[in-house]
Design a protein that fits this description.
Helix content is 52%, strand content 10%. It has a single domain, classed as Cytochrome P450 (Cytochrome p450, Orthogonal Bundle), CATH 1.10.630. The protein has 20 helices and ten strands. The structure holds protoporphyrin IX containing FE.
Length: 418
């Protein structure tokens, strides 16, 4: 790369602000600049070196010496200091059951916790939920079909994941709106703007969520049902979960797929509205949907950023990093890497192969990926069967600010029902 291009890139990165409206409008321009750098960009607010190239992200995500948590590797004083620097401290419930979960464990503990729910989330296990998703989506569409316009996010997408994951776990259907609220309040704290106000909200939401799950657990202990929580109780009784691990696994399952599903449904619909040819092809031939859904995940991943800590010294692109360094895995940036994907900025529903990283890779590969894709497929199938046109209304679509999540804030649409 010429010095001119390199220095232009560096100047731009000095202005790198993931909370800015410009980044929300088009993060992909910045990701392109990050990939062009000859070394990972150090992002101080996360104390992380950002990896944007596909090969680098895969290498770190699949390296067993790159871990999610430094628990057990750093001293209590170091841990406390790191927590304090990142404003992750002084929140007893959040620290106990959100900051340490299956997602934030490694090695043997992670393998044990993952194995306990893995079998319940395979494509075969969740196939039984298809009818539930379909019935619920049809009911939602019936409820809005007389409206001239509605918000695809707030009035439609936002209702679905809480209901479905809640059903899988065994939460009563009427609790879905509350589950959504808690999930949003708890995970908002994962981005860089950890204000005191957000902190208080995240802690209160975690506390209330915790007590809700304790109550549900007690209820299922008395009256077991054919649901995941009742099955998890058998595992707890057999000593395979500690009480905190039990609650934290339930909470993670309820939260991990919540905002992400809402966001990707919104970005997916927005992307299709901008690509009417692709939408027309999908209407005409629904067998194209599974491939198109993979492309939506590649093109607009709802969870763009995760971290890893190095347990050993490591060299990346010829640059040395000592053990203890934190890396940011920009799955979204990797999904647009021209070295891996032809025409990466083009939305192509026929793309194959499509080894996107929206669900991560390696030991922490998303456990909900089959459920996420099932939801998407059934929702788009029903939308295309029951409507003759879907139009976007209103002006520019604004996306959420931040590095950790991506999805439209609102998406007003008009549907012509058949
Ligand atoms: C809707 C789209 C979704 C996306 C894009 C997504 C993405 C991801 C990603 C990237 C990871 C890996 C994190 C890392 O590398 O550190 C992950 C992990 C995880 N996801 Fe998802 N997810 C989605 C939906 C779901 C759903 C519906 C569920 C639950 C039913 C779920 C449950 C989990 C769990 C439990 C983990 C932790 C796995 C582990 O640490 O071993 N996700 N997800």
């Amino acid at each position: 790369m010429s010095d001119e291009v390199q220095s232009a890139t560096v100047t731009q990165l000095n202005e790198f602000d993931p909370l800015s409206p410009a980044f929300a409008r088009d993060p992909y321009k910045i990701y392109q600049q990050l990939r062009a750098l000859d070394r990972p960009h150090y992002f101080a607010p996360h104390d992380a070196n950002l990896l944007a190239r596909y090969d680098d992200v895969v290498a770190v995500a699949t390296n067993p010496a790159m871990v999610r948590s430094l628990k057990g590797y750093e001293s209590a004083t170091e841990a406390a200091e790191r927590q304090r620097r990142a404003n992750w401290h002084d929140m007893p419930y959040h620290e106990r059951v959100v900051q340490f979960s299956l997602l934030d464990s490694d090695g043997d503990v992670h393998r044990r916790l993952r194995k306990l729910v893995f079998g319940d989330l395979t494509s075969r296990s969740i196939a039984g939920l298809e009818a539930e998703v379909r019935t619920y989506v049809v009911r939602l569409l019936d409820g809005i079909k007389d409206r001239d316009e509605f918000d695809f996010i707030a009035d439609f997408a936002a209702h679905i994941p809480g209901h479905i994951i809640g059903r899988l776990l065994g939460c009563p259907a009427e609790d879905a709106p509350q589950l959504r609220l808690w999930s949003e309040q708890v995970v908002q704290f994962f981005d860089v703007d950890r204000t005191a106000q957000k902190k208080a909200l995240a802690e209160t939401a975690t506390r209330d969520f915790y007590h809700y799950l304790e109550h549900l657990k007690a209820e299922r202990t008395r009256h077991p049902k054919d649901d995941l929580i009742s099955k998890m109780l058998l595992d707890e009784r057999a000593g395979r979960y500690t009480p905190d691990e039990f609650i934290s696994t339930c909470m993670l399952l309820l939260m991990a797929g919540h905002g992400s599903t809402i966001d990707v449904l919104g970005s997916g619909m927005h992307t299709l509205l901008k690509h009417p040819d692709a939408m027309a092809q999908l209407r005409a031939d629904q067998s194209l949907l599974p491939n198109a859904i993979q492309e939506i995940f590649r093109y607009e991943p709802p969870l763009p950023f995760f971290h890893r800590h190095a347990l050993e010294d490591v060299t990346i692109r010829g640059h040395y990093y000592p053990a203890g360094t934190t890396f940011g895995l920009l799955y979204s940036a990797a999904n647009r890497d021209e070295a891996q994907f032809e025409r990466p900025d083009e939305f192509d529903i026929h793309r194959t192969p499509n080894r996107h990283l929206a669900f991560g890779m390696g030991a922490h590969l998303c456990l909900g990926n089959h459920l996420a894709r099932l939801n998407m497929r059934v929702i788009f199938e029903e939308l295309f069967v029951r409507t003759s046109t879907i139009e976007g209304v209103g002006g520019e679509t604004t996306y959420k600010p931040g590095l950790s999540v991506r999805g439209p804030l609102a998406l007003p649409v008009r549907l012509a029902f058949r």
